[in-house]
C-alpha cells in the first residue's frame, strides 16, 4: 500500500538513502530537514522545513497529511539534548497530536542497555536511552525502534542479522533498506530491533522478529 510518509532528518546520510528506498517502493515523501533548501524536490519528494527546536505545535504543522513518520534526525554529537533527545520526544508528541499512528525511530545499538555502552558514545547513547524509553512508555504509537551499530559508507549487501550480542557494523544502505521494509512488516510494531550486517536477506530476517 502506497503511503504519504514524513522523514525527519532527510538530509542526513541515512535519511537521503531512506528516501530513495521509499520512493522506489512507490511512496510519497515529505522530506523534513532544517536545511530544506538542500533537498531536491520532484513528483515524489516534497522538501519541508523542520526545526526540532520549535514547539510541538510547530512541528505538528510540518507533518501535513502524512500517514507514517520516520525519525532519523541527528546532530552528530553537536546538539544532543535539543535534537537527538528532546527533538525526538517533541516529534513523538507532534505525531500523536496529528493522530498519526505508525512511527519508525532510528536509535543506536544497545541504547537501552547501559552496561554495554562504550565511553566514546556515552552521551549519544544517553540521548537515545531516554528518547527510546519515552517512545515505549509514554506514547501509544505503533512504533518500531531500529538499533544498528556503527554506520559505514559501504555498499549494502541486502543481508543482515538481528541476533546481536556485541558491537556490529552496518552499511548505511542496509540500514536504510531495513527502515523502508519495516513499514511493510506489521510484526515489527512495538518491537526494538538490533541489527548488523549479516547473512540473512532483509525481508526474511524481519519476518522472524
UniProtKB/TrEMBL annotation:
<dbReference type="InterPro" id="IPR016040">
    <property type="entry name" value="NAD(P)-bd_dom"/>
</dbReference>
<dbReference type="InterPro" id="IPR036291">
    <property type="entry name" value="NAD(P)-bd_dom_sf"/>
</dbReference>
<dbReference type="Pfam" id="PF13460">
    <property type="entry name" value="NAD_binding_10"/>
</dbReference>
<protein>
    <submittedName>
        <fullName>NAD-dependent epimerase/dehydratase family protein</fullName>
    </submittedName>
</protein>
Amino acid at each position: 500500500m502506497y503511503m504519504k510518509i514524513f522523514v525527519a532528518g532527510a538530509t542526513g546520510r541515512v535519511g537521503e538513502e531512506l528516501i530513495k528506498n521509499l520512493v522506489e517502493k512507490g511512496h510519497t515523501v515529505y522530506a523534513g530537514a532544517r536545511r530544506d533548501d538542500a533537498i531536491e524536490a520532484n513528483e515524489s519528494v516534497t522538501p519541508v522545513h523542520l526545526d526540532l527546536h520549535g514547539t510541538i505545535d510547530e512541528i505538528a504543522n510540518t507533518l501535513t497529511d502524512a500517514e507514517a513518520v520516520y525519525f532519523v534526525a541527528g546532530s552528530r554529537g553537536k546538539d544532543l539534548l535539543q535534537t537527538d533527545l528532546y527533538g525526538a520526544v517533541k516529534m513523538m508528541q507532534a505525531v500523536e497530536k496529528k493522530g498519526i499512528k505508525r512511527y519508525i525511530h532510528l536509535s543506536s545499538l544497545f541504547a537501552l542497555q547501559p552496561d554495554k555502552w562504550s565511553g566514546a558514545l556515552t552521551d549519544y547513547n544517553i540521548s537515545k536511552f531516554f528518547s527510546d524509553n519515552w517512545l515505549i512508555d509514554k506514547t501509544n504509537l505503533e512504533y518500531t525502534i531500529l538499533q544498528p551499530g556503527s554506520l559505514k559508507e559501504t555498499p549494502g549487501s541486502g543481508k543482515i542479522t538481528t541476533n546481536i550480542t556485541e558491537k556490529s557494523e552496518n552499511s548505511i544502505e542496509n540500514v536504510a533498506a531495513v527502515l523502508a521494509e519495516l513499514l511493510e512488516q506489521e510484526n515489527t510494531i512495538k518491537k526494538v530491533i538490533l541489527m548488523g550486517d549479516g547473512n540473512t536477506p532483509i525481508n526474511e530476517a524481519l519476518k522472524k522478529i
